[in-house]
What we know:
Elements: H1 2-15, H2 22-29, H3 38-47, E1 51-56, E2 69-73, E3 78-84, E4 88-93, E5 98-103, H4 104-110, E6 111-119, H5 121-128
Antiparallel strand pairs: 1-6, 2-3, 2-6, 3-4, 4-5
Amino acid sequence: xxxxxxxxxxxxxxxxxxxxxxxxxxxxxxxxxxxxxxxxxxxxxxxxxxxxxxxxxxxxxxxxxxxxxxxxxxxxxxxxxxxxxxxxxxxxxxxxxxxxxxxxxxxxxxxxxxxxxxxxxxxxxxxxx
Length: 129
């Protein structure tokens, strides 16, 4: 789980123009078992000038949030939500390293309504223009 989560954080940080080193994050923020979980990712994001928080969103509200966002899958893995529409969703599968479009029914079967949202001061300012 922690490798997918960490890879997702690094990818989204890159999208926001922030370069993160996954090995450095593992060294500085891993727990006593050597794992990087959601809490450690939130701390790593904050220490690297990113805003990050875990939010709960109903599936109907996903088309209104700032994307990309990390989504916690029901099997405890992570994927990146790139785009949300009424009946289809574009996701990036971190483990298989590919994008795919899935329909609402399939998305509902994996979506836990928990997201790790990441943004940067740059993206916050750009959204206000």
